[in-house]
């Protein structure tokens, strides 16, 4: 695809289209600061802390950004509201839910295994382009 300068993209598009380039830029800067070489095994932790991770982004853009950050060797620790669990879960290994009631704090740990990750992405057209094609065929067959 042809590239478009970031300055021309800022005026139009969704939140995901506006925010994704900044995650790419921040991730690349973090990887450079940590001296992570994508072609070599790294022995250190390349932590990236994200508050309100991928807020306002759709699932496709959030998953793409998270996969990019992971692919360059960063380990993400993300804070996000419970409503974003389904959007973030395909890119996570572990979810810690932290709830506070008065002075009591409750922590629940959930591990995301590969079968769950597959199920969570099973209805995403960006992951399975054939879904849209099959749906169009079914609609045409039903209309005939």
Can you describe this structure in just a few lines?
With 144 residues, the protein is an alpha+beta fold.
Overall geometric form: globular
Question: Largest sheet, described in full?
Answer: 2 strands, parallel
Give the total of beta strands.
4
Rg result: 18 Å
Note down, in words, how this protein is organized.
The chain has 144 residues and is of the alpha+beta class. The chain has helices spanning 6-9, 15-33, 59-71, 85-88, 114-121, 130-143; strands spanning 47-51, 75-79, 94-101, 104-111. The strands form two sheets. A two-stranded parallel ribbon has the order 1-2. A two-stranded antiparallel sheet has the order 3-4.
List the helices and strands and how they pair.
Blueprint: H1 6-9, H2 15-33, E1 47-51, H3 59-71, E2 75-79, H4 85-88, E3 94-101, E4 104-111, H5 114-121, H6 130-143
Parallel strand pairs: 1-2
Antiparallel strand pairs: 3-4
Helix pairs in contact: 2-3
Search tags:
single chain; 144 residues; alpha+beta; two-stranded parallel sheet; 4 strands; 18% strand
């Amino acid at each position: 695809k042809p590239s478009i300068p970031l300055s021309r993209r800022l005026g139009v598009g969704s939140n995901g289209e506006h925010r994704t380039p900044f995650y790419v830029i921040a991730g690349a800067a973090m990887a450079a600061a940590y001296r992570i070489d994508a072609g070599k095994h790294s022995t250190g932790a390349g932590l990236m802390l994200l508050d309100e991770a991928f807020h306002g982004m759709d699932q496709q853009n959030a998953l793409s950004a998270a996969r990019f950050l992971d692919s360059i060797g960063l380990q993400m620790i993300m804070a996000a509201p419970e409503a974003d669990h389904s959007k973030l879960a395909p890119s996570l290994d572990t979810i810690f839910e932290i709830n506070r009631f008065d002075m009591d704090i409750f922590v629940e740990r959930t591990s995301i295994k590969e079968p769950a990750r597959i199920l969570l992405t099973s209805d995403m057209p960006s992951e399975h382009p054939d879904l849209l094609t099959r749906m169009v065929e079914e609609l045409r067959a039903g209309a005939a």
